[in-house]
Amino acid sequence: KIDKKVDQVVVGKKEISIWLKEDGGTFEKEDERHEIRSLTDEQALELNEQMIIIEELYQKPMDIEWAYARGRLFIVQARPITTHLELPEELLTKPGEQRRLYLDATYVVQGFEKPLTTMGGSLLHRIIETISKAATRKPNILDVRDGIGTEYFGKLFFNLGNVWSKAGKDTISQRFRRMDIISAAIMENADGQTYQPPSTAPALRINPFSLFWRLPLFKIKFGSYMITRLCKNLQEGFETYEKLVNELETEDLTLNDRMNRLIDGLAKLLLGSIVPVFLNGQKAMIALEEMFNDDMKQEDLAIGHHLQRLTRSLPHNITVEMGLNLFDVSTAVGEDCYGSPEAFVRAFKEDQITISLKQKWASFVEKYGFRGEGEIDVANKRYYEDPDMLLSQVYNMSKNCSDQSNPRKLYEHAVKEREEAYEYLLAKATTIGQKRTFVRNYETMMNMAGHREIHKFYVVRTLSHLRKFILEHANVLVQVGGLDDIEQVFELSLDNLLEVESRVFETPEERKLLITELREKNNAQRDIFMHWGTNPRVIDSRGRILRQKPRPLSEGEIAGQPVSPGVVTGRVAILHTAHEKPLLPGEILVARATDPGWTPLFINAAAIVLEVGGVLQHGALVAREYGKPCVAGVENVLTQLQDGEFVRVDGDTGIITRLSEEERKEEEKP
């Protein structure tokens, strides 16, 4: 906050000064005025005043060059700070205001390099807002100033300072290490006083006792003692949701009513059924790990080894099941009479495939057809709409059927390792008097922790239904001339579409003019983020990017967070999308982030390296289930590594090492 007072005076060394030559140019000489201040208090305050005026004039952070000559201040030059990024006005704070610190969840949590579409962002906002309001009864919970953050034209920003004001900076930083290690490191080094408000943010002033009646706190607190009841409640929640979906398919409702009922149904499923199971599963996993302290792990290194394997191949993991089912589809391809993925896709479309393949494909699409790459954005196509993006992967999987890459065999092997780890750790727990606690937490984990991906499964399923609703209305707008193309509807927000639906237009041209104006306005705001040229995890409300401190490494090494154990050597394959090119057996999959649409690629991958994420990121979860080494949180990995180069990926230490030709040959020796 600017109080127009000099808080501290520090005199620099000023050992060298630069002087003008009489005949032109400059020269340096030692300066004896070491102890003399360059600016008086009055001059510092005058300069500060001019900086405020200039920034208020330009409404953005400015790089200002100035000079004093004969006691008079001269402003030499002022330009926008080039190391800062442009932010929309709604996200900026003015000079003197409490700064805000934003986490870009679109990038850090979902791995989107670019913002979501305007429609995709607004729908995600509606879903999060509905769930948050149902849980807290706070109407401004999704507010960038008073709440946890906001969605703005395809970007979802969390206000970290406000979240810290409720839960504490250190607590949030520590817990976020499981999500994204780099973001956690940035938070740890950020100045809390600069970004954290002096008191709890208004929308987060929640009475804990009031939450008892809205959240299933009793089930969350004592879930390990009511496993059967919670699992039954989960299945009943699934059935209720399915019934709602079937009703909405047949009832004649407005777009707004259909959306509200479906999103309200999702919120009820998540809060009433999924959250208690999900959180109890996570609590049990953490409890099992914390049962053995650091001293025990140091004394017996096998404890850490077995703890890693204890949480693998848990039942009920919907994403892993999807990958296994797709592998089953690939086994029905049969002998290769196609020759290439393109030929296979053509044969599939021309119905020149076996009955077994048809049946397995139909079964897969019935259960998972609503998913797809970038599925969190409602604008992106689903498997049932564009099967080509998956069929090529099916063909490539069918060509790689060795036991070493067979995901079912890998899964079964991981189950066996988990059971062995259980017996070993049970014996250790018994020696420290924790046998009953260990068994109870293990049973809780086995019944509940595997459901850790089910919340996203139903969010994406809801988005798929919403996509159908939106496209139905977009098709009508195309027919009446409001849109030139059905895909243009995703350039509108949900509120825009509802406004168009509710208004009465005198002419088709009037409707077209309004829709065009809305689209252009939205695209102009979204373009601010499109022109960033970089993806900051954390950025403040003046456009300053906060970065993690570099850690020391040996030559040829790149560091990340170890999230799935194992060490392998292979050729790097950089993919920006899941369908950019085939991933050959034994290659190292290098990507910014992954979602369930990438799961089939894990079968051929020898290891996975991710720019974004931590132990809870999709890629890390699937890698552990398939027994593949994985390193996440590797900053700028898509530019640090080169496509085709050979590296060693160490999933135990988080180190990726570039290999010379000689080192590669040495690694490949039997």
Task: Describe it.
- Helix content is 48%, strand content 12%.
- The chain is an alpha+beta fold.
- The strands form 4 sheets. An 8-stranded mixed beta sheet has the order 10-17-16-12-13-14-15-11.
- Helix 11 runs antiparallel to helix 19 (435-448).
- The protein starts with 15 loop residues before the first strand and ends with a helix.
- The mean pLDDT is 88.
Short note summarizing the structure:
The protein is an alpha+beta fold.
Low-confidence stretches: none
Radius of gyration equals 28 Å
Percent helix range: 40-55%
- End-to-end distance: 65 Å
Number of beta strands: 17
In order across it, which strands form the biggest sheet? 10-17-16-12-13-14-15-11
Mean pLDDT, nearest integer? 88
* Shape summary: globular
Question: What structural category do the secondary elements indicate?
Answer: alpha+beta
* Main sheet makeup: 8 strands, mixed
Features:
alpha+beta; 25 helices; globular
Topology:
Layout: E1 16-20, E2 26-30, H1 41-58, E3 62-69, E4 72-80, E5 101-104, H2 105-108, H3 118-136, E6 149-152, E7 155-159, H4 160-167, H5 169-176, H6 181-189, H7 192-195, H8 208-211, H9 217-221, H10 227-250, H11 255-290, H12 294-299, H13 301-310, H14 318-331, H15 341-349, H16 355-368, H17 388-398, H18 407-431, H19 435-448, H20 454-479, H21 494-502, H22 508-530, E8 538-540, E9 545-546, E10 557-559, E11 561-564, E12 567-574, E13 588-591, E14 607-610, H23 618-626, E15 630-632, H24 637-640, E16 646-650, E17 655-658, H25 661-668
Parallel strand pairs: 12-13, 13-14, 14-15
Antiparallel strand pairs: 1-2, 3-4, 5-7, 5-8, 6-7, 8-9, 10-17, 11-15, 12-16, 16-17
